[in-house]
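job 3f2a | input accepted
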Amino acid sequence: MTRPPAYRQLENLFARLSHLDQATGFLQWDMAAVMPEGGAISRGEQLATLKSLSHELLTAASTKALLDAAAGEELDPWQRANLEEMRRDWLHAAAVPTALVESLSKACSACEMTWRKARPQSDFALVAEPLHKVLELTREVAAIKSQALGVSPYDALLDQYEPGGRSAEIETLFADLKDFLPGFLSQVLVKQQAAPSLPAGPFPLPSQRALGLAMMQTLGFDFTHGRLDESLHPFCGGTPDDVRITTRYDEHNFLPSLFGVIHETGHALYEQGLPPAWRHQPVGRARGMSLHESQSLLMEMQACRSAAFFRYLAPRLAAEFGGAGWDAEAIYAATTRVKPDFIRVDADEVTYPAHVILRFTLEKALIAGEIGVRDIPSEWNRGMRDLLGITPPDDRSGCLQDIHWFDGAFGYFPTYSLGAMTAAQLFDAAMRDLPDLAGDISEGRFAGLLSWLRDKVHAHASRLSAADLLRQATGRKLDAGIFKEHLARRYLGDAGNELRRRVS
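job 3f2a | predicted structure (504 res):
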């Protein structure tokens, strides 16, 4: 179908905006991975300039005129969906003055760099003032967007990461998990009293990196369009044509790095699978962060922490690290070990939702003004004690562990557990559609699973809402019961039969 004139001009504009956004992303990757400390101030100015330039282009009077004109043009379904995403971008941007966008960008860059000093020193007071500035500016943005979008201030922030997401719906899902997890956790801890062990380290960092690269290749990562690097906080960035994964290493424990790489590879595969024909258009982007997180957790938790996968992995661990004791069943038992821990990114999948529920609760209270920045350490420790029965010994193990708030990403955290539930539901559907999937995984064959994901998720990009995409792929709306059933099957085994009947 030909492109009508107003719509064609919008496509050209949004392609330019995409290029600016991608340049911003690479500057942020560089800042996290390789930039020297002395480059922080100038990098903050560069990022602020690019973000303000994008904001000015998007919010120009001509953009709204084109959006209004294109609404009356004849468009095919992809073009119509693209126009809807364009308007959504415009609504978010037009509500906020350019000066505020620039101020928030600079404040976030400064706060993030201060956090990089405060975290290793376990000194929350060092970053409290920069974070207070970020929070005040974020509250200002939230209030403005709340009026423009007709939602609460927190939901206006949430909508940036989870289009159409509403905190009331999330609270219902999380309340279900919060009621379920304590009793389930107690059952699991009783069942796991006998502690399995892995061969002792150290595990040389070059060997860990080689193992990570090998697993990326196994999962289907395209190294002609991406790479693996190291950073303080693991993440996936870049563009679909140049995906940048980072991880961090500990020579005494190879598991966080290995599964961090697998997790970020799940993100990367989603990016690499997005439709090339819509590469620089809003409709060609990934559909929200809960779906993005589902792709990483499907690979990490559903596929690669399964008993089947360890039958494939065990001989590769023996080859890479040497020594004896690399038994698949023992490794599976060790890597599905449940133990309340202070660090979210190292948490097992049973206790992980508690970490997210805590952050969701706190950031809602911060945006609402019910607590302030200096309340964060005490409120954090109280929440960990209430939810998991443990209290962080210091701020590094507590409220300083995540980069998100210090980089201005309020409203992001709930997407992690929404992603876990979505991953369980998608994998459940894939197992039904692919009867040999477990056998394939045990042999390191992921082509069938990746092809299924390409067809059911990646190829749709943002053409459908997350809810519609999930319903189309699995035949039902998001159902926490499937996630609970997965946990019961994995962590209680035969003892979980009655529980599975109750949650199904």
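job 3f2a | DSSP finds 21 helices and three strands in the chain.
job 3f2a | closed
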